[in-house]
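Q: Can someone sanity-check these two? First one:
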Amino acid sequence: MTQYTLKCEEKIRLYSLLRLKLPSLLKTEISNSKLRRLIISGSIFVNGKQIRIPAFTVFKGSSVVAEIEEEKLFFEKQPDDIDFQLCEKDILFEDESIIVVNKPCHFPSEASMVLSRKNLHSAVVDYLFKRQKREKPLAKNPPYVGIMHRLDRDTSGAILFTKTRTVNKAFHDMFEQHLIHKEYVAVCCGIPKKENFIVEFTMGRISRKSEPAKWGFLEEENGGLASKTEFTVLNSKGNFCVVKCKLFTGRTHQIRVHLSSVALSILGDVLYGGLFNERIMLHSKKLSFIHPLTSEKIEIESPLPSEFEIYLLK
Protein backbone atom coordinates (compact mmCIF):
# COMPACT_ATOMS: atom_id res chain seq x y z
CA MET A 1 0.00 0.00 0.00
CA THR A 2 1.26 3.46 -0.93
CA GLN A 3 0.37 6.80 0.65
CA TYR A 4 -0.23 9.84 -1.56
CA THR A 5 -0.52 13.34 -0.06
CA LEU A 6 -2.73 15.83 -1.88
CA LYS A 7 -2.39 19.60 -1.53
CA CYS A 8 -5.68 21.41 -0.96
CA GLU A 9 -5.36 24.97 -2.25
CA GLU A 10 -9.01 26.01 -2.05
CA LYS A 11 -12.35 24.99 -0.55
CA ILE A 12 -13.45 21.97 -2.58
CA ARG A 13 -15.44 18.72 -2.45
CA LEU A 14 -13.32 15.66 -1.64
CA TYR A 15 -14.30 13.85 -4.83
CA SER A 16 -13.41 16.90 -6.93
CA LEU A 17 -10.03 17.22 -5.21
CA LEU A 18 -9.19 13.59 -6.01
CA ARG A 19 -10.40 14.07 -9.58
CA LEU A 20 -8.09 17.08 -9.90
CA LYS A 21 -4.96 15.82 -8.14
CA LEU A 22 -4.78 12.04 -8.02
CA PRO A 23 -4.24 11.11 -11.70
CA SER A 24 -1.00 13.12 -11.83
CA LEU A 25 0.28 11.48 -8.65
CA LEU A 26 -0.58 8.00 -9.96
CA LYS A 27 0.71 8.93 -13.42
CA THR A 28 -2.39 7.39 -15.00
CA GLU A 29 -6.05 8.14 -15.56
CA ILE A 30 -8.56 6.85 -13.03
CA SER A 31 -12.28 6.45 -13.65
CA ASN A 32 -14.95 8.39 -11.77
CA SER A 33 -16.42 5.18 -10.33
CA LYS A 34 -13.04 4.10 -8.97
CA LEU A 35 -12.52 7.49 -7.36
CA ARG A 36 -15.85 7.19 -5.56
CA ARG A 37 -15.12 3.61 -4.50
CA LEU A 38 -11.73 4.74 -3.19
CA ILE A 39 -13.51 7.18 -0.87
CA ILE A 40 -16.31 4.81 0.17
CA SER A 41 -13.83 2.02 0.93
CA GLY A 42 -12.17 4.17 3.62
CA SER A 43 -8.90 4.87 1.82
CA ILE A 44 -9.01 8.67 2.17
CA PHE A 45 -8.05 10.62 5.28
CA VAL A 46 -8.62 14.35 5.84
CA ASN A 47 -6.60 15.84 8.70
CA GLY A 48 -6.06 12.30 9.99
CA LYS A 49 -9.76 11.38 9.97
CA GLN A 50 -11.12 8.65 7.69
CA ILE A 51 -13.72 10.15 5.34
CA ARG A 52 -16.15 8.01 3.29
CA ILE A 53 -18.35 10.79 1.85
CA PRO A 54 -17.49 11.87 -1.75
CA ALA A 55 -19.22 15.26 -1.25
CA PHE A 56 -17.30 16.02 1.96
CA THR A 57 -16.05 19.64 1.99
CA VAL A 58 -12.27 20.02 2.24
CA PHE A 59 -10.95 23.43 3.27
CA LYS A 60 -7.82 25.19 2.07
CA GLY A 61 -4.70 23.95 3.83
CA SER A 62 -6.22 20.63 4.91
CA SER A 63 -4.04 17.51 4.92
CA VAL A 64 -5.49 14.89 2.56
CA VAL A 65 -3.88 11.44 2.35
CA ALA A 66 -4.91 8.61 0.01
CA GLU A 67 -3.85 5.06 0.99
CA ILE A 68 -3.90 2.99 -2.19
CA GLU A 69 -3.12 -0.62 -3.03
CA GLU A 70 -2.57 -0.08 -6.73
CA GLU A 71 -2.92 -3.75 -7.66
CA LYS A 72 -6.41 -3.84 -6.17
CA LEU A 73 -7.37 -0.45 -7.55
CA PHE A 74 -6.39 -1.10 -11.16
CA PHE A 75 -6.70 -4.84 -11.59
CA GLU A 76 -9.55 -5.51 -9.15
CA LYS A 77 -8.64 -9.11 -8.41
CA GLN A 78 -11.66 -10.99 -7.04
CA PRO A 79 -11.14 -12.57 -3.60
CA ASP A 80 -12.43 -16.04 -2.84
CA ASP A 81 -15.45 -14.85 -0.85
CA ILE A 82 -18.38 -17.11 -0.03
CA ASP A 83 -21.80 -16.43 -1.58
CA PHE A 84 -23.80 -15.32 1.45
CA GLN A 85 -27.36 -14.04 1.84
CA LEU A 86 -28.56 -12.93 5.27
CA CYS A 87 -31.50 -14.92 6.69
CA GLU A 88 -33.59 -14.68 9.84
CA LYS A 89 -31.50 -17.39 11.53
CA ASP A 90 -28.43 -15.15 11.21
CA ILE A 91 -30.00 -12.40 13.36
CA LEU A 92 -28.69 -12.55 16.92
CA PHE A 93 -30.53 -9.47 18.24
CA GLU A 94 -32.72 -6.73 16.81
CA ASP A 95 -34.78 -3.83 18.08
CA GLU A 96 -35.90 -0.50 16.63
CA SER A 97 -32.41 1.00 16.70
CA ILE A 98 -29.85 -1.79 16.17
CA ILE A 99 -29.37 -5.18 14.56
CA VAL A 100 -26.66 -7.67 15.54
CA VAL A 101 -25.90 -10.41 13.02
CA ASN A 102 -23.79 -13.54 12.93
CA LYS A 103 -21.07 -12.85 10.35
CA PRO A 104 -19.72 -15.86 8.44
CA CYS A 105 -16.05 -16.42 7.72
CA HIS A 106 -14.63 -15.59 4.25
CA PHE A 107 -16.97 -12.61 3.85
CA PRO A 108 -16.05 -8.90 4.14
CA SER A 109 -17.85 -6.67 6.64
CA GLU A 110 -18.19 -3.67 4.32
CA ALA A 111 -17.77 -2.43 0.77
CA SER A 112 -14.35 -2.47 -0.84
CA MET A 113 -12.98 -0.80 -3.96
CA VAL A 114 -14.32 -3.73 -6.02
CA LEU A 115 -17.85 -2.50 -6.69
CA SER A 116 -19.30 -5.93 -7.49
CA ARG A 117 -17.90 -7.55 -4.33
CA LYS A 118 -20.61 -8.61 -1.88
CA ASN A 119 -20.32 -7.65 1.77
CA LEU A 120 -22.18 -7.98 5.07
CA HIS A 121 -23.30 -4.35 5.26
CA SER A 122 -25.04 -4.67 1.89
CA ALA A 123 -26.52 -8.02 2.94
CA VAL A 124 -28.08 -6.39 6.01
CA VAL A 125 -29.52 -3.57 3.90
CA ASP A 126 -30.97 -6.11 1.45
CA TYR A 127 -32.47 -8.21 4.24
CA LEU A 128 -34.17 -5.24 5.90
CA PHE A 129 -35.36 -3.81 2.56
CA LYS A 130 -36.98 -7.10 1.51
CA ARG A 131 -38.75 -7.29 4.86
CA GLN A 132 -39.83 -3.68 4.51
CA LYS A 133 -41.21 -4.39 1.02
CA ARG A 134 -43.30 -7.25 2.39
CA GLU A 135 -44.83 -4.92 4.96
CA LYS A 136 -45.02 -1.87 2.67
CA PRO A 137 -45.00 -2.99 -0.99
CA LEU A 138 -44.76 0.60 -2.27
CA ALA A 139 -41.52 1.33 -0.36
CA LYS A 140 -38.84 2.61 -2.76
CA ASN A 141 -35.85 3.59 -0.63
CA PRO A 142 -33.61 1.00 1.09
CA PRO A 143 -33.42 1.43 4.88
CA TYR A 144 -30.48 3.08 6.59
CA VAL A 145 -27.84 0.77 8.10
CA GLY A 146 -24.86 2.28 9.94
CA ILE A 147 -21.44 0.65 10.40
CA MET A 148 -20.19 0.94 14.00
CA HIS A 149 -17.30 -1.54 14.03
CA ARG A 150 -15.76 -4.14 11.76
CA LEU A 151 -14.57 -7.74 11.73
CA ASP A 152 -11.79 -8.97 9.44
CA ARG A 153 -12.95 -10.93 6.40
CA ASP A 154 -11.83 -14.24 7.94
CA THR A 155 -13.20 -13.53 11.44
CA SER A 156 -16.70 -14.82 12.16
CA GLY A 157 -19.28 -13.93 14.81
CA ALA A 158 -21.31 -11.11 16.33
CA ILE A 159 -21.22 -7.69 14.66
CA LEU A 160 -23.49 -4.71 15.37
CA PHE A 161 -25.11 -2.27 12.92
CA THR A 162 -27.39 0.68 13.68
CA LYS A 163 -30.79 1.06 12.00
CA THR A 164 -31.24 4.79 12.63
CA ARG A 165 -28.86 7.73 12.57
CA THR A 166 -30.23 9.03 15.90
CA VAL A 167 -28.28 6.37 17.85
CA ASN A 168 -25.04 6.60 15.86
CA LYS A 169 -23.28 9.01 18.20
CA ALA A 170 -24.25 7.03 21.31
CA PHE A 171 -22.94 3.75 19.90
CA HIS A 172 -19.87 5.38 18.33
CA ASP A 173 -18.97 6.86 21.72
CA MET A 174 -19.59 3.54 23.46
CA PHE A 175 -17.22 1.74 21.11
CA GLU A 176 -14.62 4.51 21.39
CA GLN A 177 -14.80 4.44 25.21
CA HIS A 178 -14.85 0.61 25.30
CA LEU A 179 -18.24 0.56 27.00
CA ILE A 180 -19.27 -2.20 24.62
CA HIS A 181 -17.46 -5.28 25.92
CA LYS A 182 -16.20 -7.65 23.24
CA GLU A 183 -15.16 -11.26 23.80
CA TYR A 184 -13.59 -13.50 21.19
CA VAL A 185 -12.60 -17.16 21.05
CA ALA A 186 -9.43 -18.22 19.24
CA VAL A 187 -7.81 -21.57 18.47
CA CYS A 188 -4.05 -21.13 18.89
CA CYS A 189 -0.94 -23.03 17.89
CA GLY A 190 1.18 -23.78 20.94
CA ILE A 191 1.05 -24.73 24.60
CA PRO A 192 0.05 -21.94 27.01
CA LYS A 193 2.27 -21.27 30.02
CA LYS A 194 -0.62 -19.89 32.13
CA GLU A 195 -4.38 -20.37 32.27
CA ASN A 196 -4.97 -16.63 32.69
CA PHE A 197 -2.73 -13.85 31.41
CA ILE A 198 -2.80 -10.27 30.15
CA VAL A 199 -0.85 -8.86 27.21
CA GLU A 200 -0.35 -5.11 27.21
CA PHE A 201 1.97 -2.90 25.14
CA THR A 202 1.96 -0.01 22.68
CA MET A 203 1.46 -1.14 19.10
CA GLY A 204 1.13 0.18 15.56
CA ARG A 205 1.87 -0.66 11.98
CA ILE A 206 5.36 -2.14 11.62
CA SER A 207 5.39 -3.05 7.91
CA ARG A 208 6.40 -0.68 5.16
CA LYS A 209 3.67 0.88 3.05
CA SER A 210 4.70 -1.24 0.07
CA GLU A 211 4.27 -4.48 2.05
CA PRO A 212 1.19 -6.33 3.35
CA ALA A 213 -0.18 -4.44 6.39
CA LYS A 214 1.22 -5.90 9.61
CA TRP A 215 1.01 -4.59 13.16
CA GLY A 216 3.18 -5.21 16.22
CA PHE A 217 5.03 -3.59 19.11
CA LEU A 218 5.80 0.04 18.38
CA GLU A 219 7.19 2.61 20.81
CA GLU A 220 4.84 5.39 21.81
CA GLU A 221 7.24 8.04 20.53
CA ASN A 222 7.03 6.41 17.09
CA GLY A 223 3.23 6.44 17.05
CA GLY A 224 2.44 3.29 19.03
CA LEU A 225 -0.91 3.23 20.85
CA ALA A 226 -1.79 1.46 24.09
CA SER A 227 -3.30 -2.01 23.72
CA LYS A 228 -4.55 -4.49 26.31
CA THR A 229 -6.17 -7.93 26.10
CA GLU A 230 -7.03 -10.43 28.83
CA PHE A 231 -6.81 -14.13 27.90
CA THR A 232 -8.30 -17.24 29.55
CA VAL A 233 -7.41 -20.74 28.35
CA LEU A 234 -10.60 -22.77 27.85
CA ASN A 235 -8.96 -25.99 26.70
CA SER A 236 -5.53 -27.31 25.78
CA LYS A 237 -5.11 -30.35 23.57
CA GLY A 238 -1.82 -31.50 22.07
CA ASN A 239 -0.12 -28.58 20.39
CA PHE A 240 -3.28 -26.47 20.25
CA CYS A 241 -5.33 -24.52 22.74
CA VAL A 242 -8.63 -22.64 22.81
CA VAL A 243 -8.46 -19.18 24.35
CA LYS A 244 -11.12 -16.65 25.37
CA CYS A 245 -10.02 -13.09 24.56
CA LYS A 246 -11.41 -10.02 26.32
CA LEU A 247 -10.56 -6.71 24.68
CA PHE A 248 -9.85 -3.56 26.66
CA THR A 249 -8.74 -1.58 23.60
CA GLY A 250 -9.52 -1.91 19.91
CA ARG A 251 -6.33 -1.74 17.86
CA THR A 252 -6.03 -3.21 14.38
CA HIS A 253 -5.15 -6.94 14.56
CA GLN A 254 -4.85 -6.60 18.36
CA ILE A 255 -5.76 -10.16 19.36
CA ARG A 256 -3.67 -11.63 16.56
CA VAL A 257 -0.63 -9.55 17.51
CA HIS A 258 -0.96 -10.15 21.26
CA LEU A 259 -1.28 -13.93 20.92
CA SER A 260 1.62 -14.06 18.49
CA SER A 261 3.76 -12.13 21.01
CA VAL A 262 3.40 -14.97 23.56
CA ALA A 263 4.03 -17.78 21.03
CA LEU A 264 0.34 -18.63 20.65
CA SER A 265 -0.33 -17.56 17.07
CA ILE A 266 -3.89 -18.18 15.88
CA LEU A 267 -4.38 -21.26 13.71
CA GLY A 268 -4.64 -20.12 10.08
CA ASP A 269 -3.08 -16.73 10.76
CA VAL A 270 0.09 -17.21 8.71
CA LEU A 271 0.81 -13.46 8.74
CA TYR A 272 1.54 -13.69 12.47
CA GLY A 273 3.17 -17.12 12.57
CA GLY A 274 0.18 -19.46 12.71
CA LEU A 275 -0.03 -22.77 10.86
CA PHE A 276 -1.93 -22.86 7.58
CA ASN A 277 -5.66 -23.56 7.88
CA GLU A 278 -8.72 -23.01 5.69
CA ARG A 279 -9.66 -20.05 7.89
CA ILE A 280 -8.25 -17.91 10.68
CA MET A 281 -9.70 -19.49 13.82
CA LEU A 282 -10.95 -16.32 15.48
CA HIS A 283 -14.62 -15.81 16.40
CA SER A 284 -16.47 -12.81 17.87
CA LYS A 285 -18.32 -14.66 20.62
CA LYS A 286 -20.01 -12.00 22.72
CA LEU A 287 -21.07 -8.35 22.81
CA SER A 288 -22.40 -6.84 26.03
CA PHE A 289 -23.44 -3.25 26.81
CA ILE A 290 -26.01 -1.00 28.41
CA HIS A 291 -28.50 0.03 25.74
CA PRO A 292 -28.31 3.83 25.41
CA LEU A 293 -32.06 4.19 24.80
CA THR A 294 -33.57 1.63 27.19
CA SER A 295 -30.77 1.44 29.83
CA GLU A 296 -31.22 -2.34 29.63
CA LYS A 297 -28.18 -4.59 29.93
CA ILE A 298 -27.80 -6.42 26.63
CA GLU A 299 -25.71 -9.58 26.23
CA ILE A 300 -25.52 -11.11 22.77
CA GLU A 301 -23.71 -14.38 22.04
CA SER A 302 -22.82 -15.98 18.76
CA PRO A 303 -22.56 -19.80 18.70
CA LEU A 304 -19.13 -21.18 17.92
CA PRO A 305 -18.77 -22.52 14.36
CA SER A 306 -18.55 -26.31 14.09
CA GLU A 307 -14.84 -26.21 13.14
CA PHE A 308 -14.03 -25.00 16.67
CA GLU A 309 -15.67 -27.96 18.41
CA ILE A 310 -12.91 -30.53 17.87
CA TYR A 311 -10.46 -28.28 19.75
CA LEU A 312 -12.82 -28.04 22.74
CA LEU A 313 -13.05 -31.81 23.25
CA LYS A 314 -11.19 -33.04 26.31
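And here is the second, same format, sequence then C-alpha coordinates:
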Amino acid sequence: MTTARPLPVPDARSAPYWAATARHELAIARCARCDRFEIPPGSVCSHCGTTDPAFRFEPVSGRGVVRSWTVVRRASLLGFADEVPYLLVDVELAEQAGLRMIGRLLDGPDTALHEGIAVLVSFEDIAVGTAVPAFTLAAGRSS
Protein backbone atom coordinates (compact mmCIF):
# COMPACT_ATOMS: atom_id res chain seq x y z
CA MET A 1 0.00 0.00 0.00
CA THR A 2 1.37 3.41 -0.96
CA THR A 3 -0.07 6.86 -0.52
CA ALA A 4 0.63 10.37 -1.66
CA ARG A 5 -0.62 11.61 1.71
CA PRO A 6 1.95 12.79 4.23
CA LEU A 7 2.92 10.17 6.78
CA PRO A 8 3.30 10.88 10.49
CA VAL A 9 6.86 11.18 11.75
CA PRO A 10 6.74 10.00 15.36
CA ASP A 11 9.10 11.56 17.87
CA ALA A 12 9.81 10.48 21.45
CA ARG A 13 6.66 12.21 22.72
CA SER A 14 4.24 10.94 20.02
CA ALA A 15 5.61 7.44 19.36
CA PRO A 16 3.19 5.67 21.79
CA TYR A 17 0.23 7.40 20.10
CA TRP A 18 1.28 6.31 16.60
CA ALA A 19 2.12 2.78 17.77
CA ALA A 20 -1.43 2.51 19.13
CA THR A 21 -3.03 3.83 15.94
CA ALA A 22 -1.09 1.25 13.92
CA ARG A 23 -2.95 -1.35 16.04
CA HIS A 24 -6.24 0.51 15.38
CA GLU A 25 -6.38 1.66 18.99
CA LEU A 26 -6.88 5.23 20.16
CA ALA A 27 -4.57 5.97 23.10
CA ILE A 28 -4.47 9.47 24.54
CA ALA A 29 -1.83 11.04 26.81
CA ARG A 30 -2.80 11.33 30.47
CA CYS A 31 -0.94 13.49 32.98
CA ALA A 32 0.51 11.46 35.83
CA ARG A 33 0.09 14.45 38.19
CA CYS A 34 -3.59 15.45 37.68
CA ASP A 35 -4.86 12.38 35.78
CA ARG A 36 -6.36 14.51 32.96
CA PHE A 37 -6.12 13.65 29.27
CA GLU A 38 -4.25 16.02 26.96
CA ILE A 39 -4.29 16.29 23.13
CA PRO A 40 -1.55 16.77 22.09
CA PRO A 41 0.72 16.31 25.06
CA GLY A 42 3.18 19.13 25.57
CA SER A 43 6.04 19.73 27.95
CA VAL A 44 3.58 21.35 30.40
CA CYS A 45 0.17 19.97 31.36
CA SER A 46 -2.45 22.53 30.35
CA HIS A 47 -4.72 21.38 33.19
CA CYS A 48 -2.50 21.43 36.28
CA GLY A 49 0.49 23.38 34.98
CA THR A 50 3.11 20.83 35.99
CA THR A 51 6.33 20.97 34.02
CA ASP A 52 6.81 17.26 34.69
CA PRO A 53 3.54 15.70 33.47
CA ALA A 54 5.07 12.22 32.90
CA PHE A 55 2.36 11.57 30.32
CA ARG A 56 1.30 7.97 29.83
CA PHE A 57 -0.80 6.87 26.87
CA GLU A 58 -4.02 5.09 27.76
CA PRO A 59 -6.60 3.51 25.46
CA VAL A 60 -9.91 5.37 25.25
CA SER A 61 -13.28 4.30 23.86
CA GLY A 62 -13.16 6.46 20.74
CA ARG A 63 -16.77 7.51 21.35
CA GLY A 64 -17.58 11.16 21.04
CA VAL A 65 -19.86 13.84 19.70
CA VAL A 66 -19.37 16.31 16.88
CA ARG A 67 -18.89 19.89 18.07
CA SER A 68 -18.24 21.44 14.65
CA TRP A 69 -17.25 20.46 11.12
CA THR A 70 -16.13 21.74 7.76
CA VAL A 71 -16.17 20.39 4.22
CA VAL A 72 -12.76 20.67 2.60
CA ARG A 73 -13.30 21.39 -1.09
CA ARG A 74 -9.77 22.48 -1.98
CA ALA A 75 -6.78 20.54 -0.71
CA SER A 76 -4.29 22.74 1.09
CA LEU A 77 -2.01 19.81 1.99
CA LEU A 78 -0.02 17.79 -0.48
CA GLY A 79 -1.47 14.33 -1.04
CA PHE A 80 -5.13 15.24 -0.49
CA ALA A 81 -6.02 16.62 -3.96
CA ASP A 82 -7.55 13.31 -5.07
CA GLU A 83 -9.66 13.09 -1.91
CA VAL A 84 -11.58 16.38 -2.02
CA PRO A 85 -14.23 17.05 -1.03
CA TYR A 86 -13.91 15.52 2.43
CA LEU A 87 -15.37 16.29 5.81
CA LEU A 88 -13.34 17.24 8.91
CA VAL A 89 -15.06 16.97 12.28
CA ASP A 90 -14.11 18.44 15.64
CA VAL A 91 -15.03 15.71 18.11
CA GLU A 92 -15.32 15.93 21.90
CA LEU A 93 -14.34 12.52 23.25
CA ALA A 94 -16.52 10.87 25.90
CA GLU A 95 -13.71 10.35 28.41
CA GLN A 96 -13.40 13.97 29.48
CA ALA A 97 -15.28 17.23 28.98
CA GLY A 98 -13.33 19.44 26.59
CA LEU A 99 -11.13 16.60 25.27
CA ARG A 100 -11.29 17.31 21.56
CA MET A 101 -9.62 16.06 18.43
CA ILE A 102 -10.07 16.67 14.73
CA GLY A 103 -10.34 13.92 12.14
CA ARG A 104 -11.95 12.99 8.87
CA LEU A 105 -15.52 11.75 8.88
CA LEU A 106 -15.40 8.67 6.66
CA ASP A 107 -19.15 8.71 5.97
CA GLY A 108 -18.55 11.30 3.25
CA PRO A 109 -18.89 15.01 2.59
CA ASP A 110 -22.66 14.86 1.98
CA THR A 111 -23.44 13.43 5.41
CA ALA A 112 -26.16 15.31 7.28
CA LEU A 113 -24.57 16.51 10.51
CA HIS A 114 -25.67 18.43 13.56
CA GLU A 115 -23.90 19.48 16.72
CA GLY A 116 -23.89 16.63 19.24
CA ILE A 117 -24.27 13.77 16.74
CA ALA A 118 -22.51 10.64 18.03
CA VAL A 119 -19.40 9.29 16.29
CA LEU A 120 -16.94 6.45 16.82
CA VAL A 121 -13.26 6.37 16.05
CA SER A 122 -12.21 4.43 13.00
CA PHE A 123 -8.83 4.17 11.32
CA GLU A 124 -7.49 4.81 7.85
CA ASP A 125 -4.58 2.58 6.88
CA ILE A 126 -2.47 4.96 4.80
CA ALA A 127 0.70 2.87 4.52
CA VAL A 128 1.92 -0.49 5.75
CA GLY A 129 2.05 -0.22 9.55
CA THR A 130 0.65 3.32 9.56
CA ALA A 131 -2.93 4.25 10.40
CA VAL A 132 -4.52 7.58 11.27
CA PRO A 133 -7.62 8.04 13.38
CA ALA A 134 -10.82 9.14 11.67
CA PHE A 135 -14.49 8.95 12.62
CA THR A 136 -17.75 7.36 11.47
CA LEU A 137 -21.30 8.05 12.55
CA ALA A 138 -22.26 5.92 15.55
CA ALA A 139 -25.95 5.56 14.59
CA GLY A 140 -26.76 1.96 13.74
CA ARG A 141 -23.34 0.67 14.82
CA SER A 142 -22.72 -1.65 17.71
CA SER A 143 -19.50 -1.49 19.67
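A (reply): Looked at the second one. The first helix runs from residue 15 to 22. Residues 93 and 100 are 6 Å apart (CA to CA).
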